[in-house]
Amino acid sequence: PPVMLVELLFQAACVSLFLSSGQGRVYPARKKPASFAVERRRVGPHICFPGSGSGCCPGWMLSPGSGKCTLPLCSFGCGAGSCIAPNLCMCPDGEQGITCPEPPGTCGEYGCDLSCNHGGCQEVARVCPVGFSMAETANGVRCTDIDECRSAACEGTCVNTEGGFACECGAGRELSADRRSCRDTDECQAMPCQHRCENSVGSYRCSCRPGYHLHGNRHSCV
């Protein structure tokens, strides 16, 4: 009987030790999930490393409004679309992908420049005005004036202007309606003579009625 009593006491001690040590292992295991759950509720659904940096899982970042890990990141950008999950874009045409295709350019083969004024900025086509040629340089697009006189068909003299050209005629001649050919100027229309005026190519001649003779100034009659 004494041996039986010792064995019973030993078994009871072992059970007590097992229970106490078991509770010691289980208690922290219960406490950690409870603390982690509180952290998840506070920071948001996509949290991986509470207490280090933002704590957000890769591909997510803190939303400025709520401070929770709910803002997805798209490394390649979504263009005109929106980032709905890490590296997943919702595009304007309803398609989804890691990025959205750029819309067709409206600025032609030379692309766009940013034109800014006091009201804001807008993209404008990189084109040159009529009469100018475009050249790409290290500083961007340069528009240089085209010398139209190389190919212009002026009857008189061609004068190159910024963005165009002009034809000029010599003394006693004037441009025709087509602005290229020349015609004789009728100086008599300005009535330079006191009595009579006779137009000639590039010049004119005054004369007087019977009983008068032409003054030395070649215009008046005496």
TrEMBL record:
Q: Which UniProt keywords apply?
A: Disulfide bond, EGF-like domain, Glycoprotein, Repeat, Secreted, Signal
Localization terms from the record: Secreted
SMART domains the UniProt entry points to: EGF, EGF_CA
Instruction: Kindly list the biological process annotations in GO that this record carries.
Output: cellular response to virus
Q: Where is the EGF-like domain?
A: 184-218
Give start-end of the signal peptide: 1-24
Molecular-function annotations in GO = calcium ion binding
What SUPFAM superfamilies does UniProt report for this protein, alphabetically?
Answer: Growth factor receptor domain (SSF57184)
Q: Key word Cell cycle present in the record?
A: no
**An annotated GO cellular component:** cytoplasm
- Keyword Thylakoid on this protein? no
Q: Which Gene3D superfamilies match?
A: Laminin
Taxonomy, superkingdom: Eukaryota
**InterPro entries linked:** EGF, EGF-like_Ca-bd_dom, EGF-type_Asp/Asn_hydroxyl_site, EGF_Ca-bd_CS, Growth_fac_rcpt_cys_sf, NOTCH1_EGF-like, vWF_C/EGF_Fibrillin
This chain belongs to the protein called: VWCE protein
Organism equals: Mohoua ochrocephala
**Which lineage?**
Eukaryota, Metazoa, Chordata, Craniata, Vertebrata
